[in-house]
Amino acid sequence: SPAASCPKVCIVGGGPAGFYTAQHLVKTRPDVQVDIYERLPVPFGLVRFGVAPDHPEVKNVMNTFTQTAQHARCSFHGNVSVGKDVTVQELQEAYHAVVLSYGAEGNRTLGVPGEDLAGVHSAKDFVGWYNGLPTNRDLRPDLRCETAVILGQGNVALDVARILLSPVDILKNTDITQPALDTLAESSVRRVLIVGRRGPLQLACTIKELREMVNLPGTRPEMEASDFECIAKMLKVLPRPRKRLTELLLKVAVETPEETELERRNSAKRAWGFRFFRSPLFKAVTEDIKAKLALVFQQGEGEDVWAVTTGEVEDVECGLVISSIGYKSLPIDPAVPFDPRKHIIPNTMGRVQKCAGLYCSGWVKRGPTGVIATTMNDSFDTARTLLHDMDEGTLDISTVKPGSAGVTTILEKRGVKPVLFSDWEKIDSEESKRGEARGKPREKLLDVGEMLKVAWT
Ligand code: FAD
């Protein structure tokens, strides 16, 4: 039949990269069949488990992904961990092409002593906890402290700061998990310091995230004016996006606010601020880490981009440290080349180097930076490369491949049962139902076992 001989492509990872790659493939080529394999029983990757609960508008992309999953020539197979349940080689035998879009599930570490202390978490785990990632379910961060320190100044750091400081009234109608909401409701955190090794001109967040921080009800900024002394005169030479970000930063940090803003700040019970030119040293100085996790900062040098040791150290009394210095991709299968320094799959325009028929897209292709729109463009690029190779004949599609039928047989033998998109829709409606009861868009299931039970009944 024509369906049996159509080009078959499989995608590893059901996040934005996977869905956008699939979307472009099925839209552009009328005969291609695309199957997405996802480790978790639920789709959408970091849109579900990364994007902050108070950013519901960002999650609207799930509607587009759902349309792709429901396309006649696309199918979703959740609960399949590639590299474990099925190898990449087995996928290559079943499909004409395999696209690796499995994101960045690892965590960059600081490499300083004390990183593993109680009270020190990675942003990745903390975000996973408030967003209901099953592996982070039991994190239970202790928020019975006045000051929290976040190491890193990118968008994820600001997400974490905002969630820690948001009035619970704002969060309670989002899809934040109930255990996280309950913990935040009891939180004693009143002050969040967002620490970076570099200076205000290198601040790594976007203006949207900074603006949200500035406008967060019940909070006031608390900066050190001296950090900004030399900045104003540099505004003129800055490129436009940097200039706008810096102008906002200066306005918040050094300008005297007008009266209503002053009143707002004076009545605020919670505070946040950036701390620049500081590099974490850790080394707990006290015995009682839970009560006082002493942080030692190494102070950098003036306007230098990278912190240079001055010999000066600073103790910050805090009970919670969240390190937000980035994600990193991990190798999932020894058969796939991996760059251990850049933590990506080495590729040329999405073609995995020296591996015919193997492609990659998203964070595993270019590293863990960029918003969903960046990931979308990057995934469309990979899809274009793949289609080009099909057209040119450098990707062989002349043989008949079994596609998902072949993989299903392998999985069955290993006792692995995939969660199809229609199964996910049962989880989705159960979550919506539970959410409705609490005035939330959804109440996420937190346990893989429970997800599977709902999916298959
Ligand atoms: P992912 O989204 O991580 O998807 C990868 C998928 O692969 C996951 O579902 C994973 O379970 C699956 N997988 C992993 N290993 C395997 C395996 N072995 N087998 C099968 N499947 C596997 N962007 C915005 O535009 N706005 C925001 O507000 C925003 N907030 C963010 C907040 C946080 C905390 C983070 C980390 C990122 C945020 N982003 C935001 C960026 C956005 O999430 C990324 O650009 C995008 O998710 C990257 O897509 P991806 O598909 O490459 O990776």
Describe this protein with a few key phrases.
457 residues; flavoprotein; 2 domains; 6-stranded parallel beta sheet; Rossmann fold; binds flavin-adenine dinucleotide; alpha/beta; FAD/NAD(P)-binding domain; Ferredox_Rdtase_adrenod; 16% strand; oxidoreductase; 16 helices; 6-stranded mixed beta sheet
CATH class type of the largest domain: Alpha Beta
Number of strands: 19
pLDDT under 50 segments (min length 5)?
Answer: 285-292
Q: Report the C-alpha radius of gyration, rounded.
A: 24 Å
End-to-end C-alpha gap: 34 Å
Counted up, domains total 2
CATH architecture of the largest domain: 3-Layer(aba) Sandwich
* Helical stretch tally: 16
Hetero compounds: flavin-adenine dinucleotide
Describe the fold and architecture:
Its cofactor is FAD. Belongs to the ferredoxin--NADP reductase type 1 family. It comes from Esox lucius (Northern pike). The strands form five sheets. A six-stranded mixed beta sheet has the order 18-4-1-2-3-19, with helices on both faces. The protein has a six-stranded parallel beta sheet with strand order 6-14-7-8-10-9. The chain has 16 helices and 19 strands. The radius of gyration is 24 Å and the shape is globular. By secondary structure, the protein is an alpha/beta fold. The structure holds flavin-adenine dinucleotide.
